[in-house]
Amino acid sequence: MAKVAIDTNVLAYAEGAGDEPRRARAVEVLVALPEGSVVLPVQVLGELYRVLAGKLRQRPADARANVLRWSDAFEPSESTWAAMQSAFDLSADHGLAIRDALILSVAAEQRCRLLLSEDLQDGFTWRGTTVVDPFAHQPSPLLSDLMAPASTRKRRSPTPAVAAAAAARARR
Question: What's the predicted TM-score (pTM) here?
Answer without folding.
Answer: 0.85
